[in-house]
Amino acid sequence: MDENPHRCVEIQTAMSVNELNDRRYFTAVVAHGGYSAASRSLGIARSKLSIRIQKLEDELSARLIERSTRNFHVTEIGRALYEPCVAILQAAEDARNAVISAQERPQGLARLGCPTPFVELVVTRTV
User: Fold this and answer.
1) The pLDDT value given to residue 120
2) N or C, which end of the chain has less CB nearby within 10 Å?
3) Residue 45's Cα: distance from chain center in Å?
4) pLDDT digits (tens, 9 = 90+) for 83-96
5) What global pTM score does this model have?
6) Could you give the domains of the chain?
7) 89, 23 in Cβ contact below 8 A?
8) Rounded to whole angstroms, what are the CA distances from 29 to 4, 25, 32, 125?
9) pLDDT tens, position by position, 20-61
């Protein structure tokens, strides 16, 4: 078995940015307990949020959220989808943070120039 931690992992289907965003919107709606709070948190219009959730439901051919003017209920399928979506979004955020962190740390060889008497003074005191 290949023990290389950097090996490529084949993914059967590629997820588009819209599909990833739809899952982010879905998790926000579930986490906030409704569309209005989620739309405020995400900074997008409630109507757009509703349309994107509907597209996700169409993509999956499943009802994820039962909604009416006064009621909000996550279906059993919606509850089953929620945790994997949270994990996917967390993994994406972790990957982004790893890249940012790697770019912030100084890397490479640093060369320092200084006069010979200074080097002799420092080296003789430390040795």
Assistant:
1) 76
2) N
3) 22
4) 999 999 999 899 99
5) 0.69
6) 1-103 (1.10.10.10)
7) yes
8) 38, 6, 5, 65
9) 899 999 999 999 999 999 999 999 999 999 999 999 999 999
Burial class from Cβ neighbours inside 10 Å (0-12, 13-18, 19+) for residue 24 reads: middle
Give the residue carrying structure tokens 């509850």: 79
**Residue 27, H or E segment:** helix 17-32
Residue 91, both tokens? 């993994």
Q: How far apart are CA 115 and CA 2, in angstroms?
A: 51
Give the span between the Cα atoms of 64 and 82, in whole angstroms: 9
Name the amino acid, one letter, at 33: G
Confidence band of 19 (pLDDT split at 50, 70, 90): confident
